[in-house]
Every structure is written in C-alpha cells, then in structure tokens.
Amino acid sequence: MIPLFLLLAAPAAAPHAVEGNPRAAVRVLIYEDLQCSDCAAFRRMLDESLLPRFGARVAFEHRDFPLARHDWARPAAMAARHFARQRPQVGIAWRREILSRIRETSAATLPERVRAFARAHGLDAAAAVAALDDVKLAEAVDADYQDGIARGISRTPTVLVEGVAFVEPASPDGIAAALQQALQKVPE
Q1: Residues with Cβ < 8 Å from 184, sequence gap 6 or more?
Q2: Angle formed at CA 2 by CA 158 and CA 25, multiple of 5 degrees
Q3: For the segment 31-41, what is each residue's pLDDT rounded down to a tens digit?
Q4: What's the distance, Cα to Cα, between the start and end of the chain in Å?
Q5: Surface-to-core class of residue 164, CB atoms within 10 Å of its CB (0-12 exposed, 13-18 middle, 19+ buried)
Q6: pLDDT tens per residue, range 82-95
Q7: Is the pLDDT at 23 greater than 90, yes or no?
Q8: What residues have CB less than 8 Å from 156, skipping those under 6 apart?
Q9: CATH code assigned at 41
Q10: Secondary structure of residue 177 in the 3-state scheme
Q11: Which domain holds residue 151?
Q12: Over 80: is that where the pLDDT of 11 sits?
C-alpha cells in the first residue's frame, strides 16, 4: 500500500487524460505503458467493467509510465498527449487504439500508425508525426514517469485508489471494492 500523503505530494506537470467524471471527488490514477500487454488487458477491464459501473462518479486519470524495455512506449505516450491537446477524447481514443494493436506495432511502424490515426480523426497527420519529437511532450511524459517513481511505481499497470495500489490487476473485483468504499466516504 502506498501512503496517501505520497499521492498528494507531487503536483502534476500537465493536465492528464481523464475518463469518467472529471469533477468527481474520487480519482483513480492509472500508471500505464502503451506498449504493455497487461495495460492492454487493464484497458479492456476499464472499458468493459469499471467505466460502465463507476464512470459517472469516478475520475480515471491516465499517467504515462513507459518502461525502458519498451522501445516505442514513450513516443506512443507523446502521441497520446498530442492528440489530447487537439481534442481530449481523441487522446483517449489513441490510448485505446494503440493498446489494442500492441502486437501489430513496432518502433518502425509507429509513425505510420500515428499518421493514419490522425487522418482518421480529421487531424493534421504531419503535425501528429512531428509530435513524436516534441520536447515539451517528452518532458510531460517524463514528468509522469518521475512522479510514478516518487510514488513507488515500478510496474504497469499500477492503479491507485485511495492510496491503495493495484499492480497488474487481473480482475476488476479489488478495484471495484476499493471504489465502492471510497464512494461511501463522499458526501452526497
């Protein structure tokens, strides 16, 4: 368990992608690597179980935690931030898309995947590919990573609910129970 004071210690470097209710009193921090197969499984869990059940009452906030062993996770996170700057829901859609295509993606194919995704969403494809080299986006991703290190994160996905870390969760049950408990503390 990660102490709650650690969850409040480090301010965010930039706005984060949020799903569910961005104004909710209960916030879940999701440290993810966009090249991680366990993160892809968690993404499905989020879409199929957690968002339908808790999305109206909980904010699910994405934090980038690209692991060094994954050669295209960092630029994929940079692309997510670029797309979110254009339209927040497109940034979420990119996260969902890239996590669903991990096996088909490589460092060599990522720029074309970014280009195609931008075109499909009516965005400037050249600007999207250029974002893969954007220093400010790299700094924002790195700030999330350092924030995760400061919180004791070492694996992905790590999901924080009220100071409790769920590392590589295989089922939504523990997270759902923690969310129920957190929601019971919120005045109506």
Answers
A1: none
A2: 80
A3: 999 999 999 99
A4: 27
A5: middle
A6: 999 999 999 999 99
A7: yes
A8: 31, 32, 33, 36, 38, 39, 65, 67, 168
A9: 3.40.30.10
A10: helix
A11: 4-184
A12: no
Residue in this structure with the two tokens 């220093």, named with its chain if needed: 135
- Whether the CB-CB separation of 128 and 85 falls below 8 Å is answered with no
Residue 150 one-letter amino acid: A
Q: Are 45 and 169 in contact (CB under 8 A)?
A: yes
Half-sphere exposure of 179 (CA within 13 A, CB side): 23
Q: Concatenate the DSSP letters of all residues of 74-118 into one string.
A: HHHHHHHHHHHHH-HHHHHHHHHHHHHTGGG--TTTHHHHHHHHH
- 99-126 burial string, b = 16+ CB within 10 Å, else e? beebeebeeeebbebbeebbeebebebe
Structure tokens at 185: 């503390």
Determine phi and psi for 28, rounding to 5 degrees. Answer: -110, 130
If we measure between CA atoms, which residue out of 26, 78, 39 comes closest to residue 158? 39
Q: Are 61 and 51 in contact (CB under 8 A)?
A: no
What's the number of domains the chain is made of? 1
Tokens encoding 180: 């129920």
**pLDDT mean across residues, the chain:** 92
